Amino acid sequence: MSQLFEVHPQNPQPRLLKQAAAILQAGGIAAVPTDSSYALVCRLDDKAAAENLRRIRQVDEKHHLTLLCKDLSELARFARVDNRQYRLLKLGTPGPYTFILEATKEVPRRLSHPSRRTIGLRVPEHVVLQDLLALFGEPLLATTLIPPGETEPMNDAEEIRERFQKLLQAVVDAGACPMAPTTVIDLTDDEPVLVRQGRGELARLGL
After folding, report:
1. In total, how many domains does the chain have?
2. Does residue 28 have a pLDDT over 90?
3. The domain containing residue 199 runs over which residues?
4. Can you give 60-113 as a three-state secondary structure string?
5. In this structure, are residues 56 and 50 in contact, taking their beta carbons and an 8 Å threshold?
6. Adjacent-strand bridge partners of 196
């Protein structure tokens, strides 16, 4: 049964987040709040956990998973970023944007897009998730918590726990999220390409 951690949305208790981080470190999967919606997360370098993540969502290897990074310097370890891309990233981080970039060798090949060697990366703005990432000490592999066969992400931690208690090891409850997807921008071409318009405004990026 998944463990529920009820944390304060603005001042999360470090003791509870450390327990959630330990579960992730041991190969568990957790539901966590973000600045867009709840997401499923696991360790980046845990192959079995990543496969479980895809299984819960029922998505194949062509579905872009996202790396949640604490800040831009961490993001730059996992993606090739030139000066033009960096300027855009700086405008949109932290925030509700996912950027598709060319993955570096730090990203296991099985996690990047099979034909393009790209990965989605974001620096979330949610206080609880930022604190969890800082405690965890490395990026988390993530996917939006949309149940199989549905189109809307889940937003109630108790409901998430009830529905997925046999599949998740932890649920971090910080109350409701905005329930709007991130804006996804592909930066691998000469010009930025809007893949999905979500919560992040293009004007903030000067686009």
Report:
1. 1
2. yes
3. 3-205
4. CCCCCCEEECCCHHHHHHHECCCHHHHHHHHHHCCCCEEEEEEECCCCCHHHCC
5. no
6. 184
Q: Which run of H or of E encompasses 20?
A: helix 14-25
Q: Residue 196 in 3-state DSSP?
A: strand
**pLDDT of the residue at 84:** 93
For residues 150-163, give the mean pLDDT: 91
Residue pair 68/129 in contact (Cβ under 8 Å)? The answer is yes
Answer whether 0.90 is exceeded by the pTM.
yes
CA–CA separation, 68 and 5 (whole Å): 20
| Contact by Cβ (8 Å): 173, 14 | no
Specify the CATH number for the domain of residue 90: 3.90.870.10
In this structure, the number of other CB atoms found within 10 A of the CB of residue 75 comes to: 22
CA distance 36 to 179: 6
pLDDT tens per residue across span 35-72: 999 999 999 989 999 999 999 999 877 777 899 999 99
Model confidence pLDDT, tens digit, residues 2-23: 899 999 999 999 999 999 999 9
